[in-house]
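INFO worker-7 received task bundle
INFO bundle size: 2
INFO processing item 0
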Amino acid sequence: MTFRIVGEGPDDRPRPVTGRWRAEEGGRIRVGFAPAPDAPFELTVVSREDDLLVLAK
């Protein structure tokens, strides 16, 4: 599944970065990017409704 986050680009302007996520146990998801400048990380799913997913670190 696709995961998108907005971060800072090299010139400090916002830049979307697209990665992939997969479900883990305990209501968590694991997110990774390719090529991977950072290690994959996990987030906790707080709630889910229709097309809105609320996450916490």
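INFO item 0 finished
INFO processing item 1
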Amino acid sequence: MNTAVSNLVPAPDPGRCPVCGQPNGCAMAVERAGGEPQPPCWCTRASFSAELLARIPAAARGKACVCAACAGASRLVVAGTSRRCEGA
């Protein structure tokens, strides 16, 4: 087996959350993919906890947005509740 090929990691899908794998609803990814202008993405107005950002695989950092469910769940976890996104 060629180890160089077996060690390849697929490129992250910019339309899927790198934490849970669900669609992330990123307007910027939609615009890049289709060329159709989009309104500002929800993520440009969101804040993300350091704990959530640390869970993003290195290969996906800066390439795929976290979904609103994971962002919201992370805020609740930071606030002390137990709700988590699917990728937890």
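INFO item 1 finished
INFO post-check item 1: The two ends are 33 Å apart (CA to CA).
INFO post-check item 1: The longest helix spans residues 68-78.
INFO worker-7 idle
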